[in-house]
Specification:
single chain; 695 residues; nine-stranded antiparallel β-sheet; 4 helices; 3% helix
Length: 695
C-alpha cells in the first residue's frame, strides 16, 4: 500500500466474518458486493458483521450520507435524488439498537444542504461544509434539534478555498476539536469559526469520497475509512486506518474486498484506558466587559482515569483557536492560568490537553467572546390585536458583553416596520373588519451597530369572518389563515402538503397525539338551523390501526374553546379517502371556529385531510333528530364491514347504491359494525348521508 505516512499491514478477514463484537461501528452506504445492503455494521477487526439493515434503504434505496450518535440514536442526513437531480434532504433519527427510523423533516435544497457534517456535543450543534441556495460553499452550523436552521460561518469563495471541503469529519470528545480530512488529504483540526489547522499528511492517493472518521476511546486513536486509487492500479480499494495525531502515525489495519464505503463511524464506548490521565477541567474564564485581554484558568488532573494518583509532573499544552499557544509541566492537580492579550474581536476557543508518561487525557475546553458582542435574539415575543411585547435583551448572542443600556428594538408586523423603541412594548391596532389576514410580529435588538437575529411572535389571524358556505381544499392561501396548537409540545403537529393538496397530522412517537388545527373564522348567523361539517380523511399507513381524530366547534381558536362536538372520535379508513360528516347547532349568532383534533394513540404514522366543507343546512335545530341524539356521526370501512360511530341514541340506516336497505340500528357508547360484502354503500344518520367503499 502506497502512502505518504508509514503504514502497517494487517491480514484481512473476509467481509462479513466476525471475530467478536466491538464498540466500533460504521454505516455502510456503498459496496460493490452483489448482495449489498446499506445499514449499520460492527467492526470485528478484521472484518465486520451487520448490526441492522437500514429500513429506509430497503424501502426507498436511499442511504445516509452524514451521521453521528446522539441520545442513543443514529442521526443524520439523507440526500434524495430524482432523475439524477438532488431535490431534497431528509433528516432522520434511527434507533441505535434496531435501526427503527424516526423521520423528523425534509428540506428543499434551495435553502442549502450539508455535504458532510458532524455533531459537536460540547455546544449541541452540527458543524460541516454545505452549499447555500445559490450553490456557493460555506462552513456552516445548525442546532442539533433544528438541523435545517443553518448559520453561515465562513465562505469558501475560490477553488482553492473549496479544497478545505472535507470528505471525513468527526467531533473528537477527547481533544474537544473537530477533525477532518480535506481535499489535500490532510488531517486537519477545524475551529468553530471554520479555521483549519494541519495536523498531518495522509495518503495522497485517497479519493474524496464521503468516508467515516471517529475517535475510539478504548484504544485512544482515530479510525478512518478511506478509498484509495494507487497509480498503476485499475481498481479502487477500501481500507480502514488508525490515526494517532499526537504521534503523527497512521496504520492500515484492514482491507475490504468490495470497496465498501462507510459514510460515518461511531464508537459506543466512551471509556478511555484506565492508565491515561483523567480529564482536565476549566476552572474560570475572566475577561472584563468588552476587553481584548483576560485569563483562562485550568485544573490539571490529579489521577488517572482508573483513579490512581498520577506520578511525576503533568505536561500540558494550551491551544488557542487550534494553534499551539503555550506548553509546560506542572504538578498533578494544580492549576494553570493562560494569560491572553490583544485578541481580535470575536469568538475564541481555548483548550488544555494534559499528558503523563506519553499518555494524554481528555482536554479541558472553553469558548469566550472577546469584545462587544451582538445582542441576543429577543425572547417572549407576543402579538395581540392591541400590542407587541417582548423580554428585554441583556446578553450577547455568543455569551459576550453588551451594554444593556444601549439596546433598542425594531418591531415589524408582516415585515413592515412599526416602531423603533427602547421599551419592550408597543401598541398596535390590527383591523377586524378587513379581509382575514395572518399577522406575525418580528423584533430585532440593536446595540453598538450590531443587530440580533430576528425573533418571531405567535401568529394571529384577524379580520372579517368568512361567510357560509365555506369550502376548504385546502390551498396554501387557506392554510395561511389557519392556526395550530401542539398541545403536548412533542414537536409533531400539522403541516400542509401542496403536492397531495391536503392537511397532514404528523405521526406520534412516544405519546398519544394531541394536536389541533383551526379553520379560519366563520360567521354563523342563525341559531335556528343546523350546521354541517363534512371532510375527507385517510389514515396515512394501513399498518397503523390507532389513528384517531375528532372535530369540534368553539368561539375561539383554542383547544379549551372547542366545547361542541361535531364529529365523534373516529378511526379513519386507510384504503382510500372517506367522507365523514357531523351536525351541530349554536345558541346565538356568532363568529366561530371549526377545529380538527388529531388524537391518535402512541406510535402512529399520521392522517391526511382534504375537502373540508362547513355548510348551513335547511334542517331546524329543534327537529326530533336532535332530541334523539342524532347530531353527528362518522363512518369508516373495514374489511367486510362498516364501522359507524355517533352520539348514543342516534339512529342509522345502511343502503346499497340502488336504494336497498341492508341494515338499521341505534348508536350506543361503542361503535356499531355492519357486516357487508364489498361494494359502495350509503349510510344515513341525522338527516345526512355518507358514502363508504368496502373492499
Amino acid at each position: 500500500m502506497l502512502s505518504a505516512v508509514a503504514t502497517q499491514a494487517a491480514t484481512p478477514m473476509p467481509a462479513g466474518q466476525s471475530s467478536g463484537a466491538s464498540s466500533l461501528y460504521g454505516y455502510m452506504g456503498y459496496s460493490e458486493a452483489e448482495d449489498f445492503v446499506a445499514g449499520l455494521y460492527n467492526f470485528t477487526l478484521p472484518g465486520y458483521s451487520m448490526t441492522w439493515a437500514d429500513p429506509i434503504y430497503q424501502d426507498a434505496t436511499m442511504s445516509l450520507q452524514s451521521g453521528w450518535l446522539r441520545n442513543g440514536r443514529i442521526c443524520g442526513f439523507i440526500p434524495y435524488y430524482y432523475l439524477s437531480q438532488l431535490v431534497t434532504v431528509i433528516y432522520v433519527e434511527m434507533d441505535l439498537e434496531t435501526g427503527y427510523p424516526y423521520i423528523f423533516e425534509d428540506n428543499d435544497i434551495t435553502d442549502g444542504a450539508y455535504e458532510i457534517c458532524a455533531y459537536n456535543s460540547s455546544d449541541n450543534h452540527i458543524y460541516g461544509y454545505a452549499f447555500d441556495g445559490a450553490g456557493d460553499w460555506w462552513f456552516m452550523r445548525s442546532p442539533a434539534d433544528r438541523p435545517f436552521d443553518m448559520e453561515k460561518i465562513k465562505s469558501l469563495p475560490t477553488q482553492r478555498d473549496e479544497r478545505q471541503l472535507c470528505s471525513a469529519l468527526t467531533w473528537d470528545e477527547k481533544d474537544k476539536t473537530l477533525y477532518g480530512v480535506n481535499a489535500d488529504n490532510k488531517l486537519v483540526t477545524i475551529t468553530p469559526q471554520g479555521k483549519q489547522n494541519e495536523v498531518m499528511q495522509l495518503s495522497e492517493y485517497s479519493l474524496p469520497y464521503i468516508s467515516g472518521l471517529c475517535r475510539s476511546a478504548s484504544d485512544d486513536r482515530l479510525y478512518w475509512n478511506a478509498t484509495i486509487k494507487a497509480p498503476g492500479y485499475l481498481n479502487e480499494v477500501s481500507y480502514l486506518y488508525t490515526i494517532q495525531p499526537d504521534m503523527q502515525k497512521a496504520a492500515e489495519i484492514d482491507e475490504f474486498e468490495n470497496s465498501e464505503q462507510f459514510m460515518f463511524l461511531i464508537d459506543t464506548d466512551k471509556s478511555y484506558p484506565s492508565d491515561n490521565p483523567a480529564e482536565a477541567i476549566t476552572v474560570s474564564t475572566d475577561f472584563k466587559d468588552g476587553e481584548s485581554s483576560g485569563t483562562v484558568t485550568f485544573a490539571l488532573p490529579a489521577n488517572t482515569v482508573g483513579g490512581e494518583a498520577l506520578n511525576g509532573p503533568v505536561s500540558w499544552m494550551i491551544r488557542l483557536d487550534g494553534d499551539k499557544f503555550d506548553e509546560g509541566n506542572s504538578t498533578a492537580g494544580t492549576q494553570v492560568k493562560a494569560e491572553l492579550s490583544d485578541l481580535s474581536e470575536g469568538m475564541h476557543y481555548i483548550a488544555l490537553t494534559p499528558s503523563c508518561d506519553g499518555k494524554s487525557g481528555a482536554s479541558a475546553y472553553t469558548e469566550v467572546y472577546v469584545g462587544i458582542d451582538t445582542p441576543s435574539s429577543p425572547t417572549g415575543v407576543s402579538l395581540t390585536k392591541e400590542s407587541v411585547t417582548w423580554d428585554a435583551v441583556t446578553t450577547g448572542q455568543h455569551g459576550g458583553y453588551i451594554d444593556a443600556s444601549k439596546v433598542k428594538y425594531k418591531v415589524y408586523i408582516n415585515d413592515i416596520l412599526e416602531a423603533t423603541t427602547t421599551d419592550t412594548r408597543i401598541p398596535v391596532s390590527i383591523s377586524t373588519t378587513l379581509p382575514l389576514t395572518r399577522y406575525q410580529a418580528k423584533v430585532e435588538a440593536i446595540a453598538d451597530g450590531k443587530t440580533s437575529t430576528p425573533a418571531l411572535s405567535n401568529p394571529i389571524v384577524e379580520g372579517a369572518p368568512l361567510q357560509l358556505d365555506v369550502q376548504i381544499e385546502p390551498t396554501a392561501k387557506q392554510v395561511a389563515l389557519m392556526l395550530t396548537d401542539d398541545v403536548n409540545a412533542d414537536g409533531y403537529g400539522w403541516t400542509f402538503d401542496p403536492e397531495d393538496v391536503c392537511l397532514v397530522a404528523d405521526y406520534s412517537e412516544t405519546e398519544p397525539m394531541d394536536d389541533w388545527i383551526f379553520m379560519p373564522a366563520i360567521d354563523f348567523p342563525d341559531k335556528d338551523v343546523l350546521y354541517e361539517v363534512n371532510l375527507e380523511a385517510i389514515s396515512a399507513d394501513s399498518r397503523y390501526a390507532g389513528e384517531l381524530f375528532e372535530v369540534a366547534f368553539g368561539d375561539e381558536p383554542t383547544p379549551e374553546a372547542m366545547t361542541t362536538k361535531v364529529i365523534a372520535r373516529t378511526n379513519p379508513d386507510a384504503w382510500g379517502y372517506t367522507t365523514y360528516r357531523g351536525l351541530f347547532s349554536i345558541n346565538q349568532p356568532m363568529k366561530g371556529y371549526i377545529g380538527i383534533h388529531a388524537c391518535s394513540l402512541t406510535d402512529q404514522y399520521g392522517m391526511k385531510f382534504r375537502n373540508i366543507n362547513i355548510l348551513r343546512t335547511n334542517i331546524g335545530s329543534s327537529v326530533s333528530e336532535m332530541a334523539d341524539g342524532m347530531m353527528h356521526f362518522s363512518v369508516s370501512a373495514l374489511e367486510g364491514s362498516i364501522r359507524i360511530e355517533g352520539a348514543p341514541g342516534g339512529k342509522y340506516e345502511v343502503y346499497t347504491t340502488d336504494g336497498m336497505l341492508r341494515a338499521s340500528g341505534q348508536l350506543t357508547d361503542s361503535p356499531s359494525y355492519v357486516d357487508v360484502s364489498s361494494g359502495m354503500y350509503l349510510v344515513r344518520s341525522a338527516g345526512q348521508t355518507a358514502k363508504v367503499l368496502v373492499r
